[in-house]
Amino acid sequence: MAASPDYVTLVSSDDFTFVVQRSSACISPAVKRMLDPLNGFLEAKTNTVRFDNISGMVLEKVCEYFYYNEKNEGARDVTDIDFPTELCLELLMAADYLDV
Amino acid sequence: MVSKIRPPRRGLNGADVDFHTTWGILETAFREIHTKNASALSFEELYRNAYKIVLKKKGEELYNRVAHFEEQWLGTNVRSGIVKTLSAPLMLTDGAGRTLATTNERREAGEKFLKSLKQAWEDHQVCMGMLTDVLMYMDRVYCTDHHQPSIFAKSMGLFRDQILRTPVRQGAPTLLEILTRIILDQIQMDRDGESIDQFLIKSNVYMLEGLYQSNQEVEDAKLYLKPFEREFLRQSAEFYRDEGERLLKESDAGTYCRHAKRRIDEENDRCRSTLSESTTPKIQAVVEDELIRNKMKGLIEMESGVAFMVDNDKLHELSLVFDLEARVDPRKPELTKAMQKIIAEMGTNINNAAIAVSESAPQTELAPAEDQPEEGKTKGAPAKAINQQTVAALKWVEEILTLKDRFDNICKHSFVADQTVSTAINRSMADVINAFSRGSEYISLFIDDNMKRGIKDKSEAEVDATLEKSILVLRYLSDKDIFETYYKKHLCKRLLLKKSQSVEVEKQMISRMKIELGNSFTLKLEAMFKDMTLSEELSNGYRNHVAGMNEGADSRRAELSIKVLTSMTWPLEAFRSGTDGGEQEGGGGRTQIIYPPSILRVKEGFERFYSQKYSGRKLTWQNNMGDADLKARFPNSRHAVHDVNCSTYAMLILLLFNELPTNASATLEEIEARTNIPLDDLKRNLQSLAVAPKTRFLIKEPMSRDINAGDRFKWNSEYNSKFLRIKVGVVSAGNKVEGDRERKETEKKNNDSRGFAIEAAVVRIMKQRKELAHAQLLTETITQLTHQFRPDVNMIKKRVESLIEREYLERVEEAPVPSYRYLA
């Protein structure tokens, strides 16, 4: 899991790791600030963010959304992303937490 | 559907969150952050903790705790650090005055203080940035919902209150006041030419810009704007007021201008490098007010002010003055006023000089135009005096032109051809020219002189320039109709007496005037030229006609070159001597000149020829204007035959003596009876023939200057001249300045023609409008006539009266304002 500056690692509460593009992950202001090298927190040093309150399943969906969002940035008439209904509430909470 | 949704896991909900533990974690972390020890902290953990607290609806408590924490931190740790740097030199300046500490000490102490303050501010900013990030969730959820300022803004407010607004000691000034004073002190040092750490000040200014008066972050209530900038502007104003006054007293205007300019640039730079850009316009205004607006008048009126600059052609300094004034007021009233005054003064000088010159020859005024027969050749004293007047006229025009050139130059180089200033200058020029009552006449004379002599050996370009110059002056003239009268008169003389150097140039001049003054102005002038061409054709036609008839093949037959002039267009009275003009009006009253048979034949021949060509036209012979070429034999002269050029009257007289036996003499009365030449003309011609030494063809008895009744004349057989061609001076050949009486006549005539012009204009306007108020009629009339002359209101009133009398107009009785109605 060598994290190049362009990629960051997101770790879920059940230890799933997701390596995503930094630019995508930073769509979430919360993640962006966590990784901001200016602040010099632990996360910024290790390029790894551990989410103790988000499960792997949800985090996967979140990562999917990051990419989906970045790809369709500014585009119109895009097909909606497909969310499993059962994850809906947890996703909402994660979204609130990450401010996306 | 609903059943399918998985309930969120408990952990996320954080029901087990204990506020105090969580806050404990956060507080420790914050302390770490403030001591720059954040690298071991997990953002996520802190974020999650804050998140949990907010979720538990403890947002308010968290917010207050954080605020309290910051307050404590700033109040104890940070402030003491800054206060420590307030060293003795700084504190000494407080009340006792600046001189207590040397500038150097003050500067160093000030810089130390500024540095620590800057450091504290920057640290605070960074830490609060991090805190805000961690507490992002709180900001987002709690602050927005409860309309609290974000924790960042709150902490900035705390910084302001704890650090800047707190007095150093009891009763001592606050840090903010000290800061302001120190910065101003440093700026003052900068103004005095010492170097300061601009960047350091700039950082502190940034801080002030980032802080607000109250917790509501209103844009125009920045800490920078209110106490600091106001103080800065006030102090600057004071400084520049003093400096301006000192400079006005101590140095000359040029230096002052340069200095002011430098100061303005300096302040600009200072705002960029040391203070805030937003101050630039304000400090500009202050400097402009103090150094320029309030001092401009003094500056311009200084001994070395604008007048001095103009006198010495200091274009650069003038342009400095212009730049300065242009800064404060686009209309530049002071400078304009000063320039106008200078022009008016210079112009008046020129005018007075011209009047002085013309009056320095009072004897000419006594004898206007009547007894200067030999203006060109024999420079008798009176002729000289008349010349002097002409010279005065030429000099006047030249000087006006120089003046104009000079100010145009100044305007172009110093005032970047500014519209307002050049308009003002033009207006003053016009005033100067129009203030001179003989302006129209002098300009015409100037052109006349150039046409006759000036353009001889000049290249086309030079001629062009001369014409252009004349037009230039003409443009300013408001009484263009007077000018027209004079010009017509002068042109007429030039054409008839063939004094003009080049018809081409004359025509050019006319076409220029046409462009400048419009068609109607040159109509008559052009007609004059047409007459000239027609006459030439006519003369040629007649010559051919005579040659064709071969009438007697008489070699002794006098040749005739005729000029037929339309009587309306030519100002023929210019040639009549002023006294008997009235009597000679109308062909009927004219005395019939008795021609010798040889001339009579030619005359009648031409009359026949002319009436064949144009039936129904009546020719009136203007003998007083013609001239003749004679071949004369004098027995004792060096040359067997002299070519003599003289006026028609002189020719008649000479021919008369041809018929008399040699040595026979004739009295004045006899000559008058035999030629029927009007007495005045006769006297003048006899004077040139018998008195002027170079053309003394006749001997007069008794020998005296004046021709008196009973004088006897006889053929001067002793006449001797080394010249083959002799020109007998032609009466009133030159165009001179008019005598008083002549001028009065011209004026009267002019007034008459103005009267007609006014009447015509009034009728034109009324015909169109049918009914018009008095005031409106006046304005419209003036507008219509203004390109010809400046109508006199009284004259218009009189003319309207007379139109009413003649029932062109009537007064409208029931109108609320006096009005007129047109009667068709």
TrEMBL record, chain A:
Q: Spell out the SUPFAM superfamilies in the cross-references.
A: POZ domain (SSF54695)
Q: Which UniProt keywords apply?
A: Nucleus
Keyword field contains Protease: no
Cellular compartments per GO CC = nucleus
Quote the CDD domains the UniProt record gives.
Answer: BTB_POZ_EloC
Residue ranges occupied by any SKP1 component POZ domain in the UniProt entry: 7-70
The record ties this protein, via Pfam families, to:
Skp1_POZ
Localization in the cell: Nucleus
Name the major location. Answer: nucleus
Can the keyword Ribonucleoprotein be found in this entry's annotation?
no
Superkingdom of the source species: Eukaryota
GO terms of biological process kind: ubiquitin-dependent protein catabolic process
Report the family membership: Belongs to the SKP1 family.
Q: Which PANTHER family does the entry link to?
A: ELONGIN-C (PTHR20648)
Described function = Essential component of the SCF (SKP1-CUL1-F-box protein) E3 ubiquitin ligase complexes, which mediate the ubiquitination and subsequent proteasomal degradation of target proteins. Controls sulfur metabolite repression, probably by mediating the inactivation or degradation of the metR transcription factor.
> What protein does this entry describe?
Elongin-C
List the source organism: Friedmanniomyces endolithicus
Source lineage? Eukaryota, Fungi, Dikarya, Ascomycota, Pezizomycotina
What gene name is listed for this protein? ELC1_3
From TrEMBL, chain B:
Q: Which SUPFAM superfamilies match?
A: Cullin homology domain, Cullin repeat-like, Winged helix' DNA-binding domain
The record, for Gene3D superfamilies, names: Cullin Repeats (1.20.1310.10), Cullin, Chain C, Domain 2 (3.30.230.130), Winged helix-like DNA-binding domain superfamily/Winged helix DNA-binding domain (1.10.10.10)
Q: According to the lineage, what is the superkingdom? A: Eukaryota
Q: Which residues form the signal peptide?
A: none
Keyword Protein biosynthesis (UniProt): no
Q: Where is the Cullin family profile domain?
A: 438-690
- Provide this UniProt record's keywords sorted from A to Z: Isopeptide bond, Ubl conjugation
One molecular function GO term is: ubiquitin protein ligase binding
Show the PROSITE patterns listed in the entry.
CULLIN_2 (PS50069)
Ranges for region Disordered:
361-382
BP-aspect Gene Ontology terms: ubiquitin-dependent protein catabolic process
Spell out the InterPro entries in the cross-references. Answer: Cullin, Cullin-like_AB, Cullin_homology, Cullin_homology_sf, Cullin_N, Cullin_neddylation_domain, Cullin_repeat-like_dom_sf, WH-like_DNA-bd_sf
The UniProt similarity line reads:
Belongs to the cullin family.
Name of the featured protein:
Cullin family profile domain-containing protein
Originating organism:
Friedmanniomyces endolithicus
Q: What is the lineage of its organism?
A: Eukaryota, Fungi, Dikarya, Ascomycota, Pezizomycotina
